[in-house]
Amino acid sequence: MSASSGPSPRKIKRMEDSDSDDENQEFDEETQKALEEIDSVQNEIDALNEKASEEILKVEQKYNKTRRPLFEKRNTIIEKIPNFWVTAVCIIWNLFFCYYFIGIVAFVLLALLV
User: Fold this and answer.
1) Cα end-to-end distance, the chain, whole Å
2) What is the pLDDT of residues 44-57, one digit of tens each?
3) Cβ-contact 32, 24 below 8 angstroms
4) How many CB atoms lie within 10 A of CB 81?
């Protein structure tokens, strides 16, 4: 998003959230100038954040492509293990319930102590 393509989403949100009383509020010249400078700097920050987001996306896409062969290699190895995913899900499910019930028991015991 370029700086000249209109107000940033943050600026639009600020404008939508402002009350009509705030819009009619008048500031002295020095305060008004400072507010305009703040808005200008915020627009620069927003543009920089947008550029950073685009570059981060490019880096993530690059490394996703680099990881793809490794994921495929890992999946090929996993296919050699019978019922791998069923076993993995069952183990995770059992751990979840184990910790869940331990939490309930601990809560009940603490409630009895109080």
Assistant:
1) 58
2) 999 999 999 999 99
3) no
4) 10
